[in-house]
Design goal:
The chain is α+β, with helices and mostly antiparallel strands. It is built from ten helices and five strands, in the order αααααααααβββββα.
Length: 330
Amino acid sequence: MALERGIVNCNWPVLEASSLVGNALALNDPQERSTFLEYYLTKNTPNQDALSKVADFYLKNGGLWPESMGYANEVSRLSTYLMTLLSRYDARLDLGNKYSHIPKALSVSYYLTYPNKDETVLFGDGHRAYHPDFDSYEMAYVLGKIANNPQLIQEFGALLNSSISNKSYDRAKLGERSYGAAVYREPTHLLWDLPTIEGSVKDYPLPTTDRLPYAGMTIQRNLGTTEKEGLMGFVGGGAHVHGHATGMAMELYGKGYVLGTKAGRGTYTTDLHENYYRLFAANNTVVVNGASETADSWVSLGQNTVMLEAVEPALKAKTYFRPQSFIQHQ
């Protein structure tokens, strides 16, 4: 069914891929099994994108999956899981080296969080709450070890060890059991996770300026060290799958609170979501660079992307400004 149903050029093929791969691996005939696995690895169909096409889509969008963050994270999460599963089945596939940029995208959402560390920027059909995906960090670390990829080992080893050190992650705690339409992965931690993790313990400071190109988003923060002192904001807007009529939207953060006019996603298929939140009231504006709708893109919401003209300091540049309050110098 995965090969004959569904749509391409979005997250659907990845969501269906766990069924495709699981059923292919269950086939007794090795030749038949190999034939069907190629539909996940390299062979596209009118209804299913292969991993190679998915990986290229990441590269064409700066190493990120260009959808609102919940969907983007799920594509990276599921793809990392399937790459690890197949690498355990046949390490010669070398998926951890061929497509290492996919698991690397798992940590991007952290750099989009507000100073309170439990809320994130909201655009398109997204969610406000932020939860570190330690489950996928473990998976990416295992994939790195199988592929002997030093970048994956170092990046996710350090993320895991640092989180264990600051007590934000407990490897002994079992995740919640979900009976929804999702892949149940908790047993893999007992069977796959490594007993020890290599990686340094360090801080992960958030950049003063950052950018999410496909969403036309530029983020700026101050150097406050607490959630009350921290200030942050973004301006952005662009067309992407599961985007709304974003327009040139803005959010601001201060005193521990987010100030944004994003109405949220609401409930899918309702009139309120389809004809109000998705198209108009979910954001500040519905016009970007003089255009609010085109004939192409996702559901005719092909707005132009907000273009960055200038930013200070430069994107992800190391800053040397001393923390200070503007109020003290009025």
